[in-house]
Write a structure and sequence with these properties.
Layout (H helix, E strand, L loop, with lengths): L7 E6 L2 E6 L4 H7 L19 E5 L7 E4 L9 E5 L21 H5 L11 H5 L6 H10 L2 H7 L8 H5 L6 H16 L4 H11 L4 H9 L2 H10 L19 H4 L4 E3 L5 E2 L4
Parallel strand pairs: 1-5
Antiparallel strand pairs: 1-2, 3-4, 3-5, 6-7
Helix pairs in contact: 4-5, 4-7, 5-7
Length: 264
């Protein structure tokens, strides 16, 4: 039985034509033709924002901005990766700016140059409403800016295209820092967890975890209850996990000495 041949499509990287297998991401296609990433590559999972890339396809006038690790190639695609985007980064002391009205505009006064052209939103690879949170920044609504910009990966695409030369990612980062430090209530559950740690509640459990074989650790890991994405009202069904699993009982494994637990 003959192996099915994979179709190849043409792409252009920095103006040079290559033939690559269809179905690849831009990043993998560039590696296929010989590019070795030293920069413009990080997590490969759409999180770090390092692989900011621009492209056009035949018959369309739009210049698209994407992450190379996420976007798939298209026939005839013309590709160029964006360089590092220098952003204006103000100096401030987070503990001293609580309660200041208009604090975002005081630290980043360039936000008032925004002309609401929406270029920032159109180029954002994460589809964040950048223009909307900038409008809230000019109004001084720190919480709105923090919540709307939460998915920002700091790639700098918005700042690189902004005609008002605003560093939107750093404005949003400041808002999230203020929101997390001075506005968002500190959860009581976290205080309780800190007290538990200080009192040594987990010392024995941690000691026994470090003695487990890899197989036993994997088994404990698969038994955990995962927190959902929307978790405001969520609480674990078993608040004592993994203490009640490995705290007492029969040996789990004798591969690397005496390891205790009750996993069956």
């Amino acid at each position: 039985m003959e192996t099915e041949k994979r179709a190849y499509v043409p792409i252009y990287v920095y103006g040079k034509k290559y033939e690559v297998p269809e179905g690849l991401t831009i990043q993998k296609a560039m590696e296929f033709v010989g590019y070795h990433f030293i920069r413009s590559c990080g997590c490969r999972g759409g999180i770090c924002g390092a692989c900011l890339t621009e492209y056009r396809v035949p018959g369309k006038y739009q210049l698209k901005v994407v992450l190379a690790c996420q976007a798939l190639i298209e026939p005839g695609m013309q590709i160029a990766q964006s360089p590092f985007v220098p952003l204006n980064r103000a100096q401030y002391e987070l503990e001293k700016i609580t309660g200041q009205p208009g604090v975002l505009g005081k630290i980043y006064p360039e936000i008032y140059r925004c002309v609401q052209c929406n270029t920032c939103t159109r180029v954002c690879p994460m589809e964040i409403p950048v223009m909307d949170y900038m409008a809230h920044a000019m109004k001084g609504d720190v919480e709105k800016v923090a919540l709307l910009s939460f998915q920002c990966i700091m790639c700098g695409a918005c700042a690189s295209k902004c005609p008002a030369e605003i560093s939107q990612p750093n404005v949003a980062l400041l808002a999230r820092r203020i929101y997390g430090r001075h506005i968002l209530p500190f959860p009581e559950d976290l205080y309780q967890r800190i007290r538990d740690i200080d009192q040594g509640r987990y010392n024995l459990v941690l000691e026994r975890l470090t003695q487990m074989s890899t197989e036993a650790l994997m088994k404990v890991y698969t038994l955990r209850e995962q927190e959902p994405q929307e978790s405001q009202e969520w609480a674990p069904k078993d608040p004592n996990f993994p203490e009640n699993i490995i705290g007492k009982g029969e040996p789990l494994s004798r591969k690397e000495g005496k390891v205790w637990g009750r996993i069956s």
